[in-house]
Amino acid sequence: MLATMSLSARRLVIVSGKGGVGKSTVSAALGMAAAGRGLRALLIEVASQERMSLLFDQGGPIGYHETPVYPGLDAFSIDPEKALEEYLVSQLKVRAMVERLVSNRAFGHITAAAPGLRELVTLAKIRQLVDRGRHDIVVVDAPATGHGLGFLKVPRNFIRVTHTGPVHARAVWVAGLLEDAERTAVVIVTTPEELPVTETLEAIADVDGQGVPLAGVIANAVFEPLFEPGDGEALAAVPAGGDAGAAAAAARTRIARTADEAEQLARVRRCLGVLPFLFEPRLDTAAVAGLGERLARL
Ligand SMILES: Nc1ncnc2c1ncn2[C@@H]1O[C@H](COP(=O)(O)OP(=O)(O)OP(=O)(O)O)[C@@H](O)[C@H]1O
Ligand SMILES: [Mg+2]
């Protein structure tokens, strides 16, 4: 399903992709871009990664609550254990029993017995935060996908294997938002390299026709072309050795890299935007805000 509505018109934008491609950076950039348009935005990170506390120089963890991180932008770090405890309290209404359940490493046993439960409770918490309506848009920095968009398929899997009961109902409720193309958009981040692009194309093929409202792909950390066509020949004529030779070799490497990246980018269909590689030792809030400006029209 190709969703064509703009991202900022959605209630929920889920940013997915392979490990290390820039999901957290792009999520923060999208959140800042939305805030820049005057929307009240919430940035959610999952599995208590606390990546956002570093990105926004929080001076402490974001934690399992709304924390203002930038004008118009709040962040929330979902700890699945806390989300499960909250859910069990709402279901069981017996606090002491819940506390026993979630202490003593019982949580590990519960989640081991029900694969995907961690993801389901996380997604249910996300839906609760969306439904609460305190924010116009919620951007989720989803977990790294080793195998396609597995995280997003969790509710469907639960619906398939449970036929009634509270877990089934919870999965139906979560899928109701996740699969609603009016309210939800999924974005996949990739770098312009062969393996991430291949995995991105596989992830798209994997979710096609399965109700996941895929908006498209954002290519991140792309080398901007520094040279003009024809510069390659001029550089090839520079004799090796010395400073000029070394500079020419570096320039040729850069030209080759840009050409490789262009080849990989050409494979990406549904490309929503391209973000440059920023040559900075550490991407700070201002740098990410700059990336957000590049995404402002999305
Ligand atoms: N456009 C960019 N230019 C330069 N560096 C970047 C860019 N985007 C991300 N990075 C850097 O690359 C590293 C990985 O980025 P990020 O943490 O956003 O990736 P991720 O996909 O969230 O990783 P993980 O899978 O570990 O959660 C970080 O050090 C980040 O600062
Ligand atoms: Mg991350």
Could you characterize the architecture of this molecule?
The structure is a single chain. Helix 1 crosses helix 12, helix 3 runs antiparallel to helix 4 and helix 6 crosses helix 8. The protein has 12 helices and 8 strands. The chain has a single domain, classed as Rossmann fold, CATH 3.40.50.300. The chain has an 8-stranded mixed sheet with strand order 3-4-2-5-1-6-7-8, sandwiched between helices. With 298 residues, it is α/β, with parallel strands linked by helices. It is 49% helix and 16% strand. A hairpin with a 2-residue loop joins strand 3 and strand 4. The site of magnesium ion has 5 residues, from helix 1. Adenosine-5'-triphosphate binds next to helix 1 and strand 7.
Q: What's the layout of helices and strands?
A:
Layout: E1 12-17, H1 23-36, E2 41-46, H2 51-55, E3 67-70, E4 73-78, H3 80-92, H4 95-102, H5 106-113, H6 117-131, E5 137-141, H7 150-161, H8 165-178, E6 184-190, H9 194-207, E7 214-222, H10 231-236, H11 242-267, E8 271-276, H12 285-294
Parallel strand pairs: 1-5, 1-6, 2-4, 2-5, 6-7, 7-8
Antiparallel strand pairs: 3-4
Helix pairs in contact: 1-12, 3-4, 3-6, 6-8, 7-8
Residues 17, 19-25, 51, 144, 220-221, 275, 277-278, 283 line the site of adenosine-5'-triphosphate (ATP).
Helical percentage = 40-55%
Major sheet details: 8 strands, mixed
Task: Give, in order, the helices and strands.
Answer: EHEHEEHHHHEHHEHEHHEH
Q: At the first level of CATH, what is the class?
A: Alpha Beta
Using only C-alpha atoms, the radius of gyration works out to 22 Å
CATH architecture: 3-Layer(aba) Sandwich
Determine the number of helices (DSSP H or I, runs of at least 4 residues).
12
Termini gap: 18 Å
Report the CATH topology name.
Answer: Rossmann fold
What's the rounded overall pLDDT mean? 88
The shape, in one word, is elongated
Number of domains: 1
Beta-strand proportion: 15-25%
CATH superfamily: P-loop containing nucleotide triphosphate hydrolases
The secondary-structure class comes to alpha/beta
Each distinct ligand: adenosine-5'-triphosphate, magnesium ion
Low-confidence stretches: none
